[in-house]
Amino acid sequence: MDRVDQDSTERAEPSKLALDGTANEPAATFARLAVEFHDSDGVEETVEAVVEFALDALGCSYAGVALAVRGQPEVPAATDPVVAEIFQFQMAAGDGPLVASMRDHSTLLIRDTTAEQRWPDWAAKVLSLGVRSVLDVPLATGNGTVGVLGLYSTERDGFSTDDEAIAHILARHASVAVATARQEESLARAVDARKLVGQAMGILMERFDIDGDHAFEVLKRHSQDTNTKLRDVAAQLIADRKLPSV
User: Fold this and answer.
1) Over 80: is that where the pLDDT of 63 sits?
2) Poorest-confidence range of 12-26, 107-121, 145-159, 194-208?
3) How far, CA to CA in Å, does 59 sit from each of 47, 128, 168?
4) What pLDDT does 67 receive?
5) How confident is the model at residue 215 (pLDDT cuts 50, 70, 90)?
6) Furthest-apart CA atoms within the chain: distance in Å
7) Cβ neighbours of residue 50 under 8 Å, at least 6 residues apart?
8) Is residue 204 within 8 Å of 246, Cβ to Cβ?
9) Any idea of the CA torsion for 199, 203, 209, 214, to the nearest 10 degrees?
10) What is the mean pLDDT of residues 223-237?
11) CA-to-CA distance for 147 and 151, rounded, in angstroms?
């Protein structure tokens, strides 16, 4: 091989490494994440994939997700009981960076909990659990904030600028995945409810020789009189065959 060919080969080698090596690891990793989210069954499995990925991608000590459910935060996934304890402490007090992040749709980075003055009670709590730095990133869609990704490190200033950028990308992926999973669960519940109501209507129609409209009115009236969801009225009728008055 002459010198020109050898130089060309040497110059080409880094490009090959860039295609197969660490230069493209983030893209490959997020591609794998998207597949895992797609394969997850429901909201709980989705957020569990989020927190496990956060540990791998960011090297933080702990991670968790709090979701807004009917205006109140719930904790469906955490990598350690420490996270659940920190989340529950803030929820009980109604204050802290997680609450602020969810309320204001803002990212909050606490570089050193020993110097945190905005939430002194919270800072004392997380310090007692060995946490020195925190990154809370909202999970937001076009319809608002659906939750918060909480990242925790036992090291002071444990999150770099790159970590924060990756956390934002992860949060965007997670926001879409959670919103999609919730929509699918809602649709599944709606389909199940229609099936139950249809089955209950069939029982009423057969037992009392009434038409479908009348059977539905019976169920609806009983639902209103007892302040019970229509789906639950239908399920109870199917289960115990105790029919409301026609």
Assistant:
1) yes
2) 12-26
3) 18, 21, 15
4) 84
5) confident
6) 97
7) 37, 63, 65, 77, 149, 170, 173, 174, 177
8) yes
9) -50
10) 84
11) 13
- Report d(CA 106, CA 98) in Å as an integer: 10
Per-state percent for the chain, helix, strand, coil, to nearest 5: 65, 15, 20
Return phi, psi of residue 116, to 5°. -75, 125
CB distance 208 to 200 below 8 Å = no
Average pLDDT estimate for 234-241: 82
> Would you give the DSSP letter of residue 154?
S
- The model's pTM: 0.63
Tell me the C-alpha distance between 35 and 114, whole Å.
39
* Residue type at 232 in one-letter notation: D
DSSP string, 194-233: HHHHHHHHHHHHHHHT--HHHHHHHHHHHHHHHT--HHHH
Closest listed residue to residue 153, CA positions, set 27, 55, 10: 55
Other C-beta atoms lying within 10 Å of the C-beta of residue 165: 11
Confidence of residue 29 (pLDDT cuts 50, 70, 90): low
